[in-house]
Amino acid sequence: MGTISLTELGSKLAGLMFIWGTIQQFFPYTLRKRIKSFWQKFENYFYPYVQITIDEFTNGKSNDIYTQVHSYLGTKSINKDAKYLKAEKSKNSKSFAVSLDEGEEIIDQFLGAKLSWRFYKETFNENSTGRNNSRPIEKKSYTITFNQRYKEMVIGKYLKHVMEEGKVIEFNNRKQKIYTNNCSEDWYWYDKGMWRDINFEHPATFDTLAMDPKKKEEIVIDLVAFSKGKDYYSKVGKAWKRGYLLYGPPGTGKSTMIAAIANFLNYDIYDLELTSVKDNSGLKKLLMETTSKSIIVIEDIDCSIDLTGKRKKKKKKNEETVNEDQEDDSDLSKEKASENKETGKLTLSGLLNFIDGIWSACGQERIIIFTTNHKDKLDPALIRRGRMDMHIEMSYCKYEAFKVLAKNYLDIETHPLFQQIQSLFEEVNISPCDVAENLMLKNASGGPEICLNNLIQALEKAKEKANKDKEDKEKTSLLNSKNIKKFSTKLVGRLKKLLK
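The structure corresponding to this sequence follows.
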């Protein structure tokens, strides 16, 4: 069989084009439609593949699917046979990412189907687009090619799988952020926005957290269950969120616990300053601007604003017996004016709605954390189960927590002085931050033994102070009891005189 020359091939193609032009001109529309349908079937028989194009931009807007496909294929390209790759890193990413170079192909498999991905890039200069740009415009896209019998599976399942995996990869590779809210008055007047942020680079982890190991394990198990509980929360009809109350004396590691939780889950932190919030409406707006997979923190909530004062006033007012008929009109006007002042302010009701009201469901996988030094000062409605689901006491440092700190600061797990330290911990209350300060190496020549001796001295001083405080308390109590006894004796004598 002889080879066909280019001249012969060109003439045959020209003949086919002439025939198709004649058909379009002289044959009716219905017949042309049938011929076209027949041609498509003929083409599909010999080329049974479907191609889907995913552009970087659609109608001038960024295409989220493209970004997720880009992340997904970046990880696949490392494990596959692709030879031409690119490395890139954005300022918001922890590390660089690998992606396909122009024209490179990668084969992926899903539920028995083979899918071919290819990256394309077109460059347009000023003349082709009609714009006077200083540099050319790039049009990037990915195409996926597969057998048409897998069309329903690819559109219904595979692309969804790619998007979900891409989101996870993006989330894990992004830099964590910590946000704080701007003052409500600055949101619009100075165009500052509601939140400002910086990179969150706190090194705390649960491994370095000075805490009882059993309590620590309990918290970790709870966090893992929450992070994997999307289907469960949907099943029981609850918003996918959880509240934690951290309470205890100052210096017991409440802020460090928040950092450890954020690093464990790779969540962003929103540090909410209630004194900068004007009213309940502003609180809702701040909530709407937070993202999913985040932690909303209100530290020292008992000191932020007076959320329980109004309730106490109402309770006191109800206990008092006041004759309303004798009130003057001026008193009524003053009371109304006082009530009007209360409107437009941040209230306990507004904060409760923020935690678990309807608006709290805007966003998923969100944790809310309150910290306080005085749990008893908080309104019971604020910390009940369902709002603050888990109450975590951050207590004074004990021997088990000390061993964690000794490993962190001195890199030792045992020492002859540990026994003496253990006996002192049973008698003394001391915060983890005070223990850490004594264990910290102050100079290069110092060693573990010097630090441990410093800690022993600090524990003995704390023991002496505790004993002295106990003695003073006992003396005061004894003195008070004597005074009460004298007073009661005098009172009895006076009553006897009166009775005579």
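The two ends are 147 Å apart (CA to CA).
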